[in-house]
Amino acid sequence: MAAATPQRTWTLAMSGAAMFALGACASASADGSGSGTNAAADAGGEQMAAQPAPDRITTQDAGKVTYWVMPGPRELSPAVFGTPDNPRMTLAPKVKAAKQAVEAGKMPPSVPGLLQDLPILVGVPEKARSTTTDGGMVLEHPTPFSDEGRIIQGKFEAKFWDNIDRDPPGKPGNTPDKAEMTATFTDPKGNDYRVVLDHVVKPPFPGYETDGGVLLNGYHHGSTGTGTPLMPQIWTIGAFWGVGEVHVNGELRSKKRVMHLMTTETVRDNDYNLATNAEMPLRPEQWLVKGQAHHTHLIVLPIQATKKGPVFKPLKTAFTLPNGKPQPFMHIMFEQDTVVK
Questions:
Q1: CB 10 within 8 A of CB 339
Q2: Residues 156, 340: contact at Cβ < 8 Å?
Q3: pLDDT-derived band at 116, boundaries 50, 70, 90
Q4: How far apart are the first and last CA of the chain?
Q5: Helices and strands in the chain: count of H runs, count of E runs
């Protein structure tokens, strides 16, 4: 987690080979296997003791505002990415650190290759940056962090158990943190999806610190080093990184799929533009939904867990893009969520 900063006061309603910017990944063990959050019995067949109440619950009921985020370009914040003459958050140092960690036996061997396939997990290569007429920079490659969203139908519930405040050593799935999550939603063409978390992981990427895979009441993204830097640094009410299943139109489409869910302060304005670091925090009159100070992001990534670690593998959604190919990730925004606890 980023360095300690004062917690914001929230008014919480108690009712009603493309390049992608990604924020999570990895297997629970070398092959991505691991105990799910709902293990039913021990070796002796006895029912396991009931787990304690979750530390946090976030949810959104059906019929409330939900968006499907389209691929698109992303403005690069100078506070995070520097300037054309003094670039920051570049890829090469991250790949070097990953290779050193692999050699030391502290990182799955697939990670350096994944960072090269999906560099925006940790940065943006200098050659991928375009300079704008006003001297700024933009990443024109399609990313999951565009300013374009389409209204869909959706609902979710997430429960968080935050049992440790640091990433313990060991394999990605070696963590006492737990979470449960089920989300159902449509795409812009009306296809049906169900996403179910199986277990929490600690993303094995250089610089990441996820508090054991479940983060409550802290900052990530932006220049923190945890999560994609394409998102602004945001106050996070609850987040998990994990692996789970994706069902499309009633059929299991993908197992061991990497996903990241976070309930955060609102980062999209009235025009659905994604704020940069300099624009945060948004003023209440800028929030997309009047009076809604927070919202929930669910990103299902083009990453799958394998025996060698996380690898790039586009998700085969049922939603076809103008180029004739399926959208290879899902970024779903639940804009009228509720923090129950």
A1: yes
A2: no
A3: very high
A4: 21
A5: 3, 16
